[in-house]
């Protein structure tokens, strides 16, 4: 076997320029493949992290997945009920205290009950439509995505006394209001209540910064004429991956619709899977193109060394040895190119990680490209490169193994 290695090395070294070109082709393919995989995987991880961080892992609402069974269906053999006008039920989640206590007993995470209602925030003759959310500041701090996004004040300021409200800075700018100003909240029931701005937040998400306002739960209940009611329970789990199982159990036990974050973003997650398939298909194509360079040099060596092959076979080398020899040469070029490609890929990833750019129209927010530093990407690129090299070396190796030494020695074509 050592002799096979020596002969393979002699063949490759004898065509140093062509070998170098093939190695560079593989290296560039591997390098850009690693960089592309790191960038795309980093973008995906960052996007999923944003989903997980900015929304509850499980959200329980006062809706139900299927219509309630009507009492008449239990008494009469009815096929269908038509023209029914159900009485409006504004109680929200029935017996919220018991539901919250039951959840706290077993849910591995944090949870908070809220009352969400649609309304209008009014100040100085300007109106902004908003979701007014009644919260308990202590429990909300454990589940809210905006806890770390306050530019002034905090949720704790709501408990300081008086009618406080926390709004986004974009809403404040639209209203022309500042910290300490008094705004008026108008509910869909037509009730109004004055609140003092005690906190401003900026999440970078327009829907939140412009369309959400937080008040004490009791004030939201008064504003909506729904005493002691909540219509949402938001849950943040220690392990977000366990959200579907928790949602199923909650929905089975208490009957209300419970949606895991994976279900809420099912189409987006499916799109990410498709994107990954496309990414790795492109990586495979790049490696296949690089394999043509290896095929070219191994074919040339096979053609030029035909007489040497004949002599080796006449000396007792088997066909398997010939296949092994030229296949080894192709894999060696692929392996050398992969190692150089790793260096190129690492350099590209490091350079991309230093790129900073503005993402806010105000020019105040800076961010970096999301990069996934994973050795798996290097191994995948290596695997694709070696596979392409093996395929590129196989055909010339098979042709070399079939050479008839008598025909070559006699000078036959």
From TrEMBL:
Q: Where found in the cell?
A: Cell membrane
- Top-rank taxon: Bacteria
Bilayer topology term:
Multi-pass membrane protein
> Residue limits of the ABC3 transporter permease C-terminal domain?
281-405
Main localization (coarse): membrane
What's one Pfam family the UniProt record gives for this protein?
MacB_PCD
GO biological process, any: lipoprotein localization to outer membrane
- Where are its TM segments located? 20-40, 277-298, 331-355, 375-395
Q: Which UniProt keywords apply?
A: Cell membrane, Membrane, Transmembrane, Transmembrane helix
Domain MacB-like periplasmic core per the UniProt entry, residue ranges = 19-252
Q: Belongs to which family?
A: Belongs to the ABC-4 integral membrane protein family. LolC/E subfamily.
Q: What is this protein called?
A: ABC transporter permease
Organism, scientific name: Phreatobacter stygius
């Amino acid at each position: 076997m050592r002799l096979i290695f020596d002969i393979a090395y002699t063949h490759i070294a004898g065509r140093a320029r062509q070998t170098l070109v093939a190695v560079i082709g593989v290296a560039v393919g591997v390098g850009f493949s690693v960089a592309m995989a790191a960038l795309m995987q980093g973008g995906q991880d960052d996007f999923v992290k944003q989903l997980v961080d900015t929304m509850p892992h499980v959200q329980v609402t006062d809706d139900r997945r299927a219509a309630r069974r009507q009492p008449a269906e239990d008494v009469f053999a009815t096929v269908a009920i038509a023209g029914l006008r159900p009485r409006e039920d504004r109680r929200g989640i029935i017996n919220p205290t018991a539901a919250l206590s039951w959840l706290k007993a077993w849910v591995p995470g944090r949870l908070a009950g809220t009352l969400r209602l649609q309304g209008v925030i009014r100040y100085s003759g300007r109106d902004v439509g908003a979701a007014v959310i009644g919260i308990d500041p202590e429990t909300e701090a454990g589940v809210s995505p905006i806890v770390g996004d306050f530019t002034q004040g905090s949720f704790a300021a709501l408990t300081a006394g008086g009618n406080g409200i926390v709004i986004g800075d974009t809403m404040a700018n639209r209203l022309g209001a500042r910290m300490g100003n008094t705004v008026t909240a108008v509910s869909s029931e037509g009730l109004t209540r004055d609140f003092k701005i005690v906190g401003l937040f900026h999440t970078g998400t327009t829907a939140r910064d412009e369309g959400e306002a937080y008040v004490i739960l009791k004030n939201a209940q008064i504003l909506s004429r729904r005493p002691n009611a909540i219509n949402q329970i938001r849950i943040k789990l220690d392990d977000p991956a366990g959200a579907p199982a928790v949602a199923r159990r909650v929905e089975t036990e208490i009957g209300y619709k419970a949606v895991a974050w994976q279900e809420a973003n099912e189409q987006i997650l499916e799109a990410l899977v498709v994107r990954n398939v496309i990414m790795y298909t492109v990586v495979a194509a790049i490696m296949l193109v690089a394999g043509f360079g290896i095929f070219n040099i191994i074919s040339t060596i096979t053609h030029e060394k035909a007489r040497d092959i004949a002599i080796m076979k006449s000396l007792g080398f088997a066909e398997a040895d010939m296949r092994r020899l030229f296949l080894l040469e192709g894999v060696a070029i692929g392996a050398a190119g992969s190692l150089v490609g790793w260096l190129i890929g690492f350099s590209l990833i490091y350079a991309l990680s230093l790129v900073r750019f503005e993402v806010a129209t105000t020019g105040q927010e800076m961010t970096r490209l999301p990069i996934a530093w994973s050795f798996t990407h290097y191994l995948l690129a290596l695997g694709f490169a070696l596979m392409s090299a093996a395929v590129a070396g196989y055909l010339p190796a098979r042709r070399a193994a079939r050479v008839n030494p008598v025909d070559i020695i006699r000078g036959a074509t």
